[in-house]
Design brief:
This protein is α+β, with helices and mostly antiparallel strands. It has helices spanning about 45-65, 100-105, 135-140, 145-170, 215, 225-235; strands at about 5-10, 15-20, 25-30, 30-35, 40-45, 70-75, 80-85, 85, 90-95, 115-125, 130-135, 170-185, 190, 200-205. α1 runs parallel beside α6. The longest helix is centred in the middle third of the chain and has 23 residues, at about 145-170. The structure holds thymidine-5'-phosphate (TMP) and aspartic acid. The site of thymidine-5'-phosphate (TMP) has 11 residues, from α2, β12 and β14.
Length: about 240
């Protein structure tokens, strides 16, 4: 059993603790929720447990399909051991339908289908509000090498295929999602952070009902219920 040591970092939704092993850390998921770069704050009861469990189930599913991740071992309802990585300071968004910031920026109705998935990069910087950047910015400013960027794009599209197919079988449309990648000690790129209703748009395939954090961002109500419903569907799809 890994006992968490010193607190290394506290973010908006997670805390990270040291472990006796230098290449492992413990992530703890909180119920705290923020939106619009921290301007909107609240609590989503049970969110930490859902995001921990769902991320880990997705990471294991992805590993089984050849996507390397930071996942090591789930410790408890809210805590997981992961590999310690250097986070690439770029948020990678994959979109299957226009929604959210893309729909707003380009004046496209939410839900418009895209001919093929779009991959976007955002520079992780709270002061700047995570600005949209191009692959050239990522490479020239040294956030990732050209080879790493190519690997990140390949893995992001593979995640989209694997999760899109899995979720469709649970009556969920994977509209878009955000990933973060890290470098291991030996320089390999692995999927890190989380994959949860906080970081994805999930729409019911038949009704279009939103089953993700947009219920919180947009004050739609039924936030906790949406997280629990998504957890139920993901567990159901994995026979749990
Ligand atoms: P966006 O449409 O607001 O750019 O969001 C795209 C996807 O990224 C959506 O599934 C939600 C997720 N996301 C995060 O995980 N963190 C963020 O800070 C933002 C803005 C979006
Ligand atoms: N990263 C955003 C914030 O802090 C959250 C979001 O919209 O998902 O506040």
């Amino acid at each position: 059993m890994v006992e968490p040591g010193a607190l290394l970092y506290e973010g908006k939704a997670k805390k990270v603790y040291a472990t006796p092993s230098p290449d492992r850390v413990v992530v703890e998921y909180k119920d705290d929720a923020t939106a619009f770069n921290g301007q909107k704050r609240g609590t989503i009861e049970g969110k930490g447990a859902v995001n921990n469990r769902m991320s880990n189930l997705f990471f294991r599913l992805l590993e089984a399909h050849g996507v390397p991740t930071h996942f090591v071992e789930e410790l408890s309802e809210r805590r997981t051991v992961v590999r310690r990585v250097d986070i690439v300071p770029v948020e990678v968004v994959v979109r299957n339908l226009a929604a959210g910031s893309m729909a707003a920026r380009l004046g496209i109705p939410e839900g418009t289908a895209l001919r093929r998935p779009i991959v976007e990069f955002y520079y992780k910087n709270d002061e700047l509000g995570d600005p949209l950047v191009t692959p050239d910015h990522v490479e020239v400013l040294g956030w990732a090498s050209a080879e790493e960027l190519e690997e990140i794009r390949r893995l992001a599209l593979r995640v989209n295929e694997v999760l899109g197919e899995f979720l469709a079988a649970q009556n969920v449309r994977l509209v878009d999602f955000k990933l973060e990648f890290g470098r291991t000690g030996d320089g390999r790129i692995v999927l890190a952070d989380e994959i949860s209703p906080d970081t994805c748009r999930f729409w019911d395939l038949k009704t279009g009902e939103k089953l993700d954090k947009d219920r919180f961002r947009r004050d739609l109500g039924g936030v906790e219920q949406a997280y629990q419903e998504m957890m139920r569907r993901v567990e159901g799809g994995l026979g749990r």
